[in-house]
Every structure is written in C-alpha cells, then in structure tokens.
Amino acid sequence: MNSRFIFPSLLLFLSALTGCYSLQTPDMQAYEAYSYHPDRSQTAAKGSLKVTFLGTSSLYFNDGETGILVDGFFTRPGNLPQLFFGQIASDHQIVRQTLERLGITHLDAIPVFHSHYDHAMDAPEIARLTGAQILGSQSTTMIGRGAGLPEHQLKVVELGREYHFGKFMLRFTESKHVPLPGLIESTGMMGEIAEPLHQPASLYAYAEGMTYAIEVSHPEGTSMLHSGAFLPGEFQGRKIDTLFLCTPGLPKLNEAEREQFYQEIIRAPGVKRVVPVHWDDFTRPLTEPLVPLPRFAEDLDAAMSFLINKSQQQPGFEIRFFPTWEAVPLTSP
Known about the structure:
Blueprint: H1 3-23, E1 50-53, E2 59-62, E3 67-70, H2 80-85, H3 92-102, E4 109-111, H4 117-120, H5 123-130, E5 133-136, H6 138-146, E6 154-156, E7 162-165, E8 168-174, H7 182-185, E9 212-218, E10 221-226, E11 242-246, H8 255-267, E12 273-277, H9 300-313, E13 318-319, E14 327-329
Parallel strand pairs: 4-5, 5-6, 10-11, 11-12, 12-13
Antiparallel strand pairs: 1-2, 1-14, 2-3, 7-8, 8-9, 9-10
C-alpha cells in the first residue's frame, strides 16, 4: 500500500483509539488498597465526629449534636439533552428521600463550595426541610432567594471569619475553580449570579460566584475541602488533618505547580489523610454505585498516580476513598 495512504489511515486509527480511551472510565478496583474499610470490631464512641460522603463534594459532618452538610447535591440530573440544552431543577422528592435515608431531620449549616449546579442547586430545598443556614457567596445567596428562603437562612461569608455551630467552626478561604474548557467558560458560568435565580433554570445560569477552600474544624479533627486548583499561600499557617481533595484539578497543573500544591496544601499543613472527592460521574443517581467520570472529563488515574507517588516517596499521609452513605469516624489516622 502506498505510504501516502498508510499514514492518514494510521492517524485515523490512532485517533479512534484515543477517542475510545477518553470515553472509558478508570477501573476503581485498581485502588482497592486505598479504599476505607471500617474495623467492625471497634465501635466509635457516641457523639464522636463522623463524615458521610455523598458523591461530588457533598459531605455530611455530624458529632451527635450538630450537623453540617457541605453542598448536598442529591438530584444529579442525568437527562443529557435536558441538562445541556434545557432547564433543570432540584427534585424535591429525591432530596426528601435522601435526607430520610440519612436520618437527617435538622441541619445547622450548609456551607457551599461554589454556585455551580452540582454544588448549590439542592441547597435551598435542603435548607427548607432542615432549617439550616446556607453559607457561601453572593451568588449562592441569589439561588436561595430565588427559591424563596427567608433572609435569616442566607449568609454571605466573609473570608477568614470564623462561623461557629455547636463544636464546629467553619472558615472560608478564597481559592480557585478547576479550569474548564473555553467553550463552557464562554457561557458565563465562571461569573456571578446577579439576581435571584428561579428554578427550573439552565445549568449555565448557575454561575460560579466564588470558589472557597472550606475548613471544617472540630475538637476531634480539622478537615478541609479543596478544589485542587489553588492560590499560592492560601493555606499559610493552617493545620489540617483530613484533606477532601477534588481530584479533577491535579492533572491540570503542570509539574512545578503540582509540586507546589503538594508542599503548600498537603505537607505544610500536616495533612494526615487525603480523601479524593468529586471524581464520580454526577449524571448518575446517588442510589447507584458511584463510577468515575470518563477520562475526557477527568483523568483520575493521573491524579492518583501523583498522590500515590508522593505518599510513597515522602510518607506521612494516607489516601482513602470513602464509601457513600456510610458514616466514617473522622478522628486523626
């Protein structure tokens, strides 16, 4: 065969292989050694600090007296044409059923990571059912106002200020959202929500507002939810036991940035445990087993390779995937 036909055919073949690979999802069995397995012979003391992972960056902290729910994205709309070209809204039945399954009748606070739909869309309905106060950016407040929440349940946070709920202390630090494709950013999703947002609404109407690193401190341990993108120096002077890390951000950093991230966000704060979050395909229902996002959306394998290598080269922290629906004791490892 003439080489002028072979070369284009080879390129087409390789492109097809690359495309297929990018549509695949990582095999979670490869990370079985990094999965949390409770010691059934030990029973956590009543009232001890626990956290329940609920997909994306939804985290329910409870110490037997006070409940804090970060984000709480339960609806997880999966009709892709409607998601990308129509309008979406919080599914009140799903929200109610999820709270019932978790045994939640009251929450004290809902700190919101940022105002995209996969973090903030369900917050108003959860607050309505539980009496919680929503804490976040001005954009998050606009989502609550659009849902008709009273003003006393909405709080625009001040950076660095401490917010106390029972034994918990919440603190918000300005951080960065993971870079998104230019086409998506051109929709205005990285901007602000300037007026009350009424559901149903386009997913593009759920603009970012501000992305925070959220510190959840408690006498039994301090946790931090982080996007994986970062502002140099944002953690200076902080001590963190457990880092809930959104893995999509790590592969988007270059080698020097990843090293700086490790030094500033993991090593300097003395992190003892890294829990990967926001790795799951959030178009799938929470009632089904979580599966990773396809590789074209997130390279979980690249993020895990970096974390595993660091944990082996410079021991000092463990990596643990937390199960969904299960309350995990959150004492220092």
